[in-house]
Amino acid sequence: MTTTFKKSLRLVSATILLAASFPSWADWVVVASAKSSIGKQSAEDISNLYLGKVSELPGAGAITAFNLPEGNGVRDDFFNDTAKKAPAALKAYWSRMIFTGQGQPPKSLADSAEVKRMLNGNPKAVGYIEKSAVDATVKVILSP
Amino acid sequence: MKISKQVLSRLAIALLTLGAAATAQAQDATEEKKFSISGFGTISAVKTNDPTIGFKSYSPMPTGSTDEWAFDNDSNLGVQLAYEFSTTTRAVVQLLSRRNHDNSYDPAIDWAYLAYSPNRSLTLRAGRFVAPAYMASESRAVGFSNVWVRPPLDVYQVASINNVDGIDFRYRAMMAGWTYALQGYAGEYDLQQSGGNHLKFNRMLGINLTAERGSWTLRFGHMDVKQTALTSTDQITPAALSAYTGEPKDANSRPLRPTNATCINSPTLPKIQCSKLFTNFDSVMDDFRRDEKGANITGLGYLFDNGRLLSQGEFAFRKGEGNIADQSSAYVTVGYRFGKFLPHFTVSKSLPRTERTDLVVAPAYQVAMQKDFPQEPYYVLNSNTAQKSFGVGFRYDITSSLALKMQVDQHTPLTTMGRGSSGFGFSRVPGSLPALSLSETSVTVSTVSLDFVF
Description:
The complex is a heterodimer of chains A (about 140) and B (about 450). With about 140 residues, chain A is of the alpha/beta class. In chain A, about 40% of the residues lie in helices and about 20% in strands. Chain A is built from five helices and seven strands, in the order αβαβββααβαββ. In chain A, a hairpin with a 3-residue loop joins strand 2 and strand 3. The longest helix of chain A has 20 residues, at about 1-20. With about 450 residues, chain B is mainly β. Chain B has a domain at about 45-70 and about 120-235 and about 290-355 and about 385-454: Porin. In chain B, the strands form four sheets. Chain B has a 16-stranded antiparallel beta barrel with strand order 1-3-4-5-6-7-8-9-10-13-14-15-16-19-20-22. A two-stranded antiparallel ribbon of chain B has the order 2-21. Chain B has a two-stranded antiparallel ribbon with strand order 11-12. In chain B, about 40% of the residues are buried. The interface of A and B includes residues 44, 87, 90 and 99 of A.
């Protein structure tokens, strides 16, 4: 009896610890071109940019943001973590913005490779990609 | 500023042509997409719990739904066409089909504007847009963007304002961690109602300030209008004063017409016009005729959404003139997201400050009036629509562009100064029945809807 209890306790503690040490399962990072002057950014500023509330990032001026397509897991995790919006909530948000003339969502690119390619040609742009896709062409400006 | 229907429809046709040309060109070019088409829609079934109570979610509609499921209340379809001329200039047309004032589904031009952004902070628009009287006014038709099946009646039906033909600006800024949007607009609009009646907004001016940070959105809005209520033959209404003696039961009101040779038929009174019988008749009639009468709405709103807990509320005060009484309205919605399932509830209330004006009998007729109408002086009341509501519902996101909603609302029209009211959105069927607040305690409206975007 006692052993079973201790065992369960250990299991519960382990689960809690595990959950606590990984606040997010997300594997996204926000990147800019390695040649860009854009510095580290806060999740709030990145969220404001991606929700079209601002068009600039602090210390970096006007910035173009790139999305990954709808249904992409990295995209879903990115918006869940930064904007606290699930895919349908995000779509509801943008449907309000689009149909009331307040803005358009950032352009979607096919995949992380395409994002990196576009950033390479534009030092005033940012994008989120899966962490494993980070290479020498980009620098991480925000991670979860 | 005046934009005729012709100009708007020409703009729509021009955009469609441009769009078609642009899509054709885009086939062989790698350039960015200049033309976009998107849309939204709602398929909704609505019913009340009583065959004698009709419900209209949109006040210009000629008839409402009663106790049988009706699909013609909230259902709609919207299509938006946008064309980017350059990075700074775009044209947008949005057509909205829903049951309208003449009982057809003819698409109406809900939005049609040219937008110019000289820089990333400022956007100027000219054309037609939706009057942003309240927080969700502009997105009132886009069911998918809201948690409710329709914005709370007790606030959103206090103003019947739909569109503005005019100009606006929107300025965005960021200060001390908050993002701000300041919008100002000016214009006019002629709102068609059933039976050929129309409400002409001679002038609309407004300003909105929205501040956002993290989960919070705060909004202040003020709109000032001058309006004229007209019949199908452009006669200003009301044409008569509805006067009462004693308890103001609706059935007992007596229309006093300035044009009648005999104001009140009675055994003792001589045949005499109202303006001679009452010393203040002309000034009260002038005050009540909705001829370029002012009204303004000041609102405060908030939205809190942290991804799980959602709460939205608005308080709005309408300052009226003439037969439009001052009115205070408010609602609060609270919801919680369990994944794709979002149950919510809303409480709301709208109360008028109805004013009574006594008609003063000219000294020569006081004895005769006392004899025939001993109870009370004749008096008039300005608007008295009052209602409180409670609703529960849920939104379930079937996919990221399709939502199922169910909602049950209990609306209770209230009696003010003894005078009955059928509340916001309700009417008796047939109309000869007493006002709802005098005969029933409340009405239940049930709604099931599917909302989508594409």
